[in-house]
Amino acid sequence: MARRKKGRAVHGWMIVDKPAGMGSTAVVSKVRWALDAQKAGHAGTLDPDATGVLAVAVGEATKTVPYVTDALKCYRFRVVWGAETSTDDASGEVLRRSDARPDRGAVETALAAFRGQIEQVPPQVSAVKVEGARAYDLAREGVEMDLAARPLFVDRLEVIAADADGVELEMVCGKGGYVRAIARDLGRALGCLGHAAWLRRVWSGPFRADDALSIETIEAEARSDALDARLLPLETGLDALPALAVTEAAAARLANGNPTEVLEGAEYGDTCWAALDGQAIAIGTYRAGLLHPSKVFRT
């Protein structure tokens, strides 16, 4: 006999305004407990000291996580000049210092090299895997690593405010970006050294900080209809994909994993989702009038 999963079969997205000092995994655990949900996951880790949008997928919405993770994200952060740290943020040990201080014009000029398709070396304290181990675990053991540069698309990087000691920036970037690495590399490029004093994720794909719930609200409304009502539909995580309307008969075939004729509305090879009266049935690849399902929703 199959073992019954603990919790309720509840589905959707809960958008949390993650506080500083709390890890992303702990936020997911809190949401799962508060909703008494069978399963949950998040779309994009935030450092423990970071704040802002952490999108938590619950139930079948976990199948849409990759499409939010791959979407553009917006960060605001402050870079403090004069010191480079072991973690590239304020929590680390100071490794080097500099008395140099750039003016705003120099910062604006230097930012041009950080836009578009760039290469970025992750921080030593990061979740990157090195021979099967996490870099942050190796760093805590005192191991110095030669981490390989990784590609990052930076759509926008602008100065929001500046003073003699640092600069506040806003960055819109793709998947896999490390704000701390931007702070470190910008400080090096300007010859003054730098690290991230704080960072906040303002939005992630379709999700905005203005619509996010605090941990206090989640705790206060735990195991209640009020908290259930705050769940966003799982379809919210498919905002970036074309939606193809289907008939009830087509929905039944897709639900069984079979390629099915769908109404036009996509290009050959597009990843799309099939909708029956606005409800997601499956995600798949569109080819010559057929949707070939790769994920099926069981709600």
The CA-CA distance between the termini, in Å, is 22 Å
Q: Please give the radius of gyration in angstroms.
A: 22 Å
Spans of at least 5 consecutive residues whose pLDDT stays below 50 are none
User: Describe the biggest sheet?
Assistant: 9 strands, mixed
* Tally of helical segments: 8
**Overall body shape:** globular
* Topology as a string of helices (H) and strands (E): EHEEHEEEHEEEHEEHEEHHEHEEEE
Q: How large is the share of residues in beta strands?
A: 35-45%
Average pLDDT confidence is 92
Number of strands: 18
Secondary-structure-derived class: alpha+beta
Q: Summarize the amount of helix as a percent range.
A: 10-25%
Could you please describe the fold and organization of this structure?
Strand 8 and strand 9 form a beta hairpin. The chain contains 8 helices and 18 strands. The chain is globular and about 70 Å long. With about 300 residues, the protein is α+β, with helices and mostly antiparallel strands.
Briefly say what this structure is:
This protein is an alpha+beta fold and 299 residues long. It has helices at 24-35, 65-69, 104-111, 135-140, 179-190, 215-220, 225-229, 248-255; strands at 12-18, 40-42, 51-58, 73-81, 83-85, 94-97, 116-120, 129-130, 133-134, 150-163, 166-173, 194-204, 207-208, 243-245, 260-261, 271-276, 279-287, 290-296.
Question: How are the secondary structure elements laid out?
Answer:
Elements: E1 12-18, H1 24-35, E2 40-42, E3 51-58, H2 65-69, E4 73-81, E5 83-85, E6 94-97, H3 104-111, E7 116-120, E8 129-130, E9 133-134, H4 135-140, E10 150-163, E11 166-173, H5 179-190, E12 194-204, E13 207-208, H6 215-220, H7 225-229, E14 243-245, H8 248-255, E15 260-261, E16 271-276, E17 279-287, E18 290-296
